[in-house]
Amino acid sequence: MRRESRLSVTDVCYIAIMAAVTAVLAQIAIPMPMGVPMTMQTFAVTLCGILLGSRKGAVSMVIYLLIGTAGVPVFSAFTGGVQCLVGPTGGFLVSFPVMAYLIGLGVEWKKKGAFLIFLLLGTAFNYVAGVLFFVVTMDSTVWAALTACVLPFLPTAVLKAVLASIFGLQLRKRLQPFLLY
């Protein structure tokens, strides 16, 4: 079976919708002491990977990053611009396409347990990239980065991943006739 490399108008619309959903959910944020806010972006990225699959999910997140990089205030706290990608939270942002891709792969694989593995891989990649950027941009230790970027977020990360998975997998079933992978 040949995989179509072109995106249909419907694909483009779904990609744009998920980029917009990510922009909206980025504004649901709780400021944290070390400058890394707790947002709903990862919920949106997980949902994006589940609904759009690996390739289109990654494209949607690239579009989101390009819009934000161009200066449109789509990142947390209505911020935008290149400085967001090279600052302390930039690693989290730039990991979104890979995170969506990995989660999408998990949905596309029909083997039992693959989704959970790829969900964990995508989330882990998000945290690793976020910690690395934080260490470099803040001239910080790995321990300080873990306490600022990972430890306070683990309980909500699990909750967001579970809720996005439940909601996303149910929505995916209902949208299956319209989502062409």
What does this structure look like?
Helix content is 69%, strand content 2%. With 181 residues, it is mainly α. The chain has a single domain (9-175), classed as Arp2/3 complex 21 kDa subunit ARPC3. A two-stranded antiparallel sheet has the order 1-2. Helix 2 packs across helix 5 (96-108) and helix 2 (41-69) crosses helix 8 (154-175). The protein is globular and about 50 Å long. The protein starts with 8 loop residues before the first helix and ends in a 6-residue tail after the last helix. The model has no long low-confidence stretch (mean pLDDT 93). It comes from Mordavella massiliensis.
CATH class: Mainly Alpha
Q: Return the string of H and E elements.
A: HEEHHHHHHH
Number of domains: 1
Q: Which range does the strand content fall in?
A: under 5%
CATH architecture: Orthogonal Bundle
Percent in helix = 55-70%
Major beta sheet, strand line-up: 1-2
Whole-angstrom Rg: 16 Å
Family: Belongs to the BioY family.
GO cellular component, one term: plasma membrane
Membrane topology: Multi-pass membrane protein
GO molecular function, one term: biotin transmembrane transporter activity
Protein topology:
Blueprint: H1 9-26, E1 29-30, E2 38-39, H2 41-69, H3 82-85, H4 90-94, H5 96-108, H6 114-138, H7 142-149, H8 154-175
Antiparallel strand pairs: 1-2
Helix pairs in contact: 1-2, 2-5, 2-8, 5-6, 6-7
Task: Describe the structure in brief.
The chain is mainly alpha-helical and 181 residues long. The protein has 8 helices and 2 strands, in the order αββααααααα. Helix 2 (41-69) packs across helix 8, helix 5 runs antiparallel to helix 6 and helix 6 crosses helix 7 (142-149).
